[in-house]
Amino acid sequence: MFYGFFRFFGTGYTVHCFYESYKKDVDVNDYYIDPKKANKERILGLFFLHDALSKPQIAELTGFSLPTINGHMKDLENMGMIGPGELMDSSGGRPAISYRLLPRSKLALGAEIRKDFVKICLCDLKGEVVKLWNIGIEYKNEKAYSAKLNSLLKEAISTCGYPLDNILGIGVAIQGVVNKAGTEIIFSKILDTSELDLEIIKKDISIPVRLCHDVKTAALAELWHNRKISNGIYIAMSEHLGGSLIKSRCIEHGRSGYAGSWDHVTFSNKGKLCYCGKRGCIDTYCNFETLFEGESIPDFFFKLREEKSKEYKVRWSKYLSTIAFGLYQAWLILERRIILGGELAMWLNPEDVAFVENEIINRSTFTCRPGFVIKANVEHHACAIGAALPYLADEIPEPVRPIEGWSTYCKPEIIEY
Ligand SMILES: [Zn+2]
């Protein structure tokens, strides 16, 4: 009612609010919703839910008049967001023209930095990979590496075949925790990133560039492509383990950004030395160096699945069992869905997922309803894809937006201590 009053009368006046709790001036435009803009967004939103729509179908779905629809559709066409497609089937009369979303009207780049390669991917408004570059380049902790990365990103922009105006920004995902603003690395021990310099990485690039934590971007990619997840624990089963917390379809950071770092849960303070400097972290039991004994991932799974090697079965069961043991601790505290992602996600079969879940259920103090452990939907390039997606989210009408943009991601946590 209070906001409704301002929406009705609000035309840009600054109103001093009489409520005791509001000690500052409130701009009524903060609450004003432009009905024309809202209607246009409603029409645009439909194109994220339907492959093709005719104007009469939009009229049926929205209740808007055809002249209103014509005006908004013209605007959306001029913006390059939608375009005409084929004629629709007609049950009599003149067939209507269908319109489609043009997902490549807006694009964003995501880059993943690893020890021996850089992966860059260009994503469209549907979160699909339009182009992918896999560049074999060894990470070196020196300024020259940042300069090389800068030239790789510029090359990707100039050779992708799309104008710079269509590209919204670049997210650079690293194996380390960064601050929420994406300007600083606050923890990175897999790769020494003390010389990695965002100012050099973004030099002469006129679109926004930011840093991000790779396991958090992988979780963002999963959220985008799996609408069933509201709250979850995303884990990356990769060269090193990683974890990310999902709360109300957003990434939960904690006070500094360390929330979800399940990979350093301690199993034994006398265990093997972890790259983080402490002993006995779960990562030391479940990283690739421990699981694989020199063989490649495809070789391991060939011996496991095709040759049905007992030795490999024992190693695999031990790995999954240890993962489940660690996940039980997380589940006990958070009791939410567990998503198994990372490089091994594509190799998981339903029996593996059920094995992890059963291990948790058998250990559990409480009765748990099965079906809470799932395999990630995004099996490839999740870190790089997720680094691009928040730029695109801002272009999508709120009701159909798969994830929130960087601005929401960057909001400070409410700290109670
Ligand atoms: Zn550790």
TrEMBL record:
Keywords: Kinase, Transferase. InterPro entries: ATPase_NBD (IPR043129), ROK (IPR000600), WH-like_DNA-bd_sf (IPR036388), WH_DNA-bd_sf (IPR036390). One of its GO terms (molecular function) is kinase activity. Signal peptide: none annotated. It holds the Pfam family ROK. Belongs to the ROK (NagC/XylR) family. This is Sugar kinase of the NBD/HSP70 family, may contain an N-terminal HTH domain. It comes from Succinivibrio dextrinosolvens.
